[in-house]
């Protein structure tokens, strides 16, 4: 009651703020034109302020998002916190001029590399479809390699072995019939003015000079040694398996420059045995062997009787066992597999899903026909290998999962 009385008795201009109550102030000022104006200005001001802040936040957010594209894939570090001694990737059967499937895997690799940076990347072969490189200047090298694996964390050495397509399998016969490409060049010199398809171009310095990451081997076995800190050393033997596949010997491409018919499979066997032996003798703690063709596989190259690559490669099994090789890693099958046989400590790893895969490849395999498979996948993907805490972890990534589709922890063979 008292407040209403005050309201009528006081001149608004002369009011003493000490004598007006809150209720009165609100009730009165609500009706002043000045207040309406102030309120509008305030609302406008707040709106502009909020709008500006939002705009700035949006711009900063967009800039950040462009610089740090959200990763679609989960890092193993989210659950695997042991500090790695060595990380490397394995990818196979990829070089398809950057088609959609190849780019999908390249992006997956680039994303995983952001949180699990590899020291190097292994290619299990079929680097350049359809039939390898025809010279050290072949533009396929850019289209299938340099322009595809552009992730900032993939600018590391690429250690590649050769696949049958690198040797010229699937060559377009018209290239040979028209005389554009030489089917049986007498020497490398004959190739300076003519097209010659050859895996050898992948190993020459002219090619490596085009992309310093590239380092390929062919026609033999090469051991590379890597340090694992307190866990010792890892020897990886890179092997050319093409000369062992019987059915390649009389193909149209067998007589290409340094083709399979000019390779000496006996000599390669001897190199493999000597280098495995040397690795064991030197006390290296871990050994892996990398080749293109499978020694064991549930894919089509070993399940179809007429062209069973695993029969041709069978000589490897006792050696892998006796020289205590932790895993044999190959491509050729356009899928990913991890096989472990009870009689054998060796893990058989297929990583050949770098571009086009064979969807449904394993669908008709009855459980008893795949009894030794720990993991089979027909999806595109790659393998991340992590040495940490004295073990080797194999993270199989596919484009279908946000994290590794399968992880195996492998102990050092006793
Ligand atoms: C490739 O690797 C071999 C063996 O480690 C090395 O000797 C050679 O210099 C490398 N080549 C290039 C081009 O990096
Ligand atoms: C080579 O080709 C001939 C005929 O094309 C075939 O009969 C023979 O079995 C082939 N040899 C090998 C080792 O594949
Ligand atoms: C393996 O190495 C040992 C020495 O450590 C040697 O006596 C033996 O002859 C070698 N065997 C082969 C097959 O190279």
UniProtKB/TrEMBL annotation:
Keyword set includes Cytoplasm: no
Keywords attached to this entry: Hydrolase, Membrane, Signal, Transmembrane, Transmembrane helix
Segments forming domain Calcineurin-like phosphoesterase: 88-335
Keyword Nucleotide-binding assigned: no
Cross-referenced InterPro entries: Calcineurin-like_PHP, Metallo-depent_PP-like, Metallophosphoesterase_PAP
SUPFAM superfamilies on file: Metallo-dependent phosphatases
Molecular function GO labels: hydrolase activity
Name of this chain's protein: Calcineurin-like phosphoesterase domain-containing protein
Species this chain originates from: Astrephomene gubernaculifera
């Amino acid at each position: 009651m008292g407040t209403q009385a005050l309201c009528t008795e006081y001149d608004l201009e002369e009011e003493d703020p000490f004598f007006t109550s809150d209720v009165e102030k609100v009730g009165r000022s609500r009706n002043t034109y000045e207040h309406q104006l102030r309120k509008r200005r305030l609302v406008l001001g707040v709106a502009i302020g909020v709008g500006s802040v939002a705009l700035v936040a949006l711009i900063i957010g967009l800039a950040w998002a462009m610089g740090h594209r959200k990763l679609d894939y989960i890092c193993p570090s989210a659950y695997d916190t042991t500090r790695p001694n060595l990380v490397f990737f394995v990818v196979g059967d990829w070089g398809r001029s950057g088609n959609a499937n190849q780019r999908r895997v390249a992006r997956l690799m680039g994303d995983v590399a952001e949180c699990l940076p590899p020291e190097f990347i292994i290619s299990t072969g079929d680097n350049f479809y359809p039939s390898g490189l025809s010279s050290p200047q072949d533009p396929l090298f850019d289209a299938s390699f340099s322009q595809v694996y552009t992730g900032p964390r993939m600018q590391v050495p690429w250690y590649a072995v050769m696949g049958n397509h690198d040797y010229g399998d699937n060559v377009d016969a018209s290239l040979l019939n028209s005389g554009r490409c030489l089917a049986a060049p007498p020497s490398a010199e004959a190739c300076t003015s003519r097209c010659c398809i050859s895996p050898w171009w992948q190993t020459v310095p002219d090619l490596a000079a085009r992309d310093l990451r590239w380092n390929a081997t062919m026609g033999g076995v090469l051991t590379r040694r890597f340090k694992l800190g307190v866990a010792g050393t890892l020897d990886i033997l890179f092997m050319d398996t093409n000369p062992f596949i019987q059915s390649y010997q009389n193909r149209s491409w067998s007589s290409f420059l340094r083709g399979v018919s000019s390779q000496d499979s006996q000599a390669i066997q001897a190199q493999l045995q000597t280098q495995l032996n040397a690795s064991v003798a030197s006390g290296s703690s871990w050994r892996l062997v990398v080749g293109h063709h499978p020694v064991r596989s549930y894919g089509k190259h070993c399940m179809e009787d007429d062209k069973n690559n695993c029969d041709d490669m069978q000589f490897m099994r006792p050696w892998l066992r006796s020289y205590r090789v932790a895993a044999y890693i190959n491509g050729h099958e356009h899928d990913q597999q991890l096989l472990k046989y009870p009689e054998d400590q060796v893990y058989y790893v297929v990583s050949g899903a770098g571009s086009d895969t064979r969807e449904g490849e394993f669908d008709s395999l009855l459980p008893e026909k795949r009894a030794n498979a720990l993991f089979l996948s027909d999806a595109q993907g790659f393998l991340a290998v992590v040495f940490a805490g004295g073990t080797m972890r194999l993270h199989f990534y596919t484009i279908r999962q946000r994290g590794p589709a399968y992880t195996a922890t492998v102990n050092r063979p006793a």
